[in-house]
Amino acid sequence: xxxxxxxxxxxxxxxxxxxxxxxxxxxxxxxxxxxxxxxxxxxxxxxxxxxxxxxxxxxxxxxxxxxxxxxxxxxxxxxxxxxxxxxxxxxxxxxxxxxxxxxxxxxxxxxxxxxxxxxxxxxxxxxxxxxxxxxxxxxxxxxxxxxxxxxxxxxxxxxxxxxxxxxxxxxxxxxxxxxxxxxxxxxxxxxxxxxxxx
Length: 198
Prior knowledge:
alpha/beta, 6 strands, six-stranded parallel β-sheet
């Protein structure tokens, strides 16, 4: 079993997340992709309650084969660290190969992660390049992280789209439509729940 893990605040989830997850599933031959909304991450504080973010993730992936959502990190008390999630998943499904899906911007932060060495021992990483990335710099970073931490990484062949949750929030707070950037069901949920208004 090859399990892809996609963490993030998902505040809100957008079409870029889904495109990257599908690319990772195809290129890394994943059996499943597990979407894990962050609880209290060390690098980025979500502004929207976890129940809303989880509901939006479930709506976004509904009907998409191999995609699942979990509230594992939302249920954890205190700061949520990737290493704790990986250890929990390893214990729940021994023998499962864990592949953590990140953007290249997140990969650059890897040396700042809690127990980076341990994370490298627990999983491989699938890296989605960002628009405008230098392939040479990203490959250099992959080699350095392998040399320094033993972290094995797979770089996806295509960059993710130039979409961010912060841009979606900016549009919605300004009263502008963001339907082109988010799944239809998510847009409906945001309107019904009156999220991202000033």
